[in-house]
Design goal:
five-stranded antiparallel β-sheet, binds guanosine-5'-monophosphate, 132 residues, single chain, HIT family, subunit A
């Protein structure tokens, strides 16, 4: 059965898309730690990030870098933090989170409640800055 992220990438479940190419997809996390919190997902279904083969994983990191550059331009922050958790969704993904302090990357923090309009605007602002 397809994972929830595959269903998102196939358009069966809506998301606020940031960017995509033939191999990878980026969209806003539905429960963001910070405005601009984005997930980078490979089209290939692999549960654990470090089970992905080298070349495909390297490509994913380069794709994530391009998304992070766009996040930093669209959502002013000190750095874009990177996290791999993967305890909820068994489809490898990288969290990219705009950070001003270490605590911004604390997944125990309460999640932001953003309106669909805010999420759409944020995804658009990041997406238009992505240079693939
Ligand atoms: P993890 O697997 O890294 O522990 O957590 C999965 C992440 O995916 C969580 O931050 C959660 O908010 C996000 N997530 C789970 N389901 C959906 C969904 O249907 N849409 C979006 N946009 N994000 C999701």
């Amino acid at each position: 059965m397809a994972t929830i992220f595959t269903k998102i990438m196939n358009g069966e479940i809506p998301c606020h898309k940031v960017a995509e190419d033939d191999h990878y997809f980026a969209f806003l996390d539905i429960n963001p730690l910070k405005k601009g919190h984005t997930l980078v997902v490979p089209r290939q279904e692999t549960d654990y990030l470090f089970d992905i083969d080298d070349e495909y994983l390297a490509g994913m990191m380069v794709f994530a870098k391009k998304i992070a550059v766009a996040i930093k331009e669209a959502c002013p922050c000190n750095r874009v933090g990177v996290a791999v958790i993967g305890l909820e969704v068994p489809h490898a993904h990288i969290h990219l989170v705009p950070m001003d302090s270490m605590n911004d990357l604390n997944f125990g923090n309460p999640k932001l409640k953003l309106t669909p309009e805010e999420l759409a605007e944020t995804a658009g602002n990041i997406g238009k800055r992505v240079r693939l």
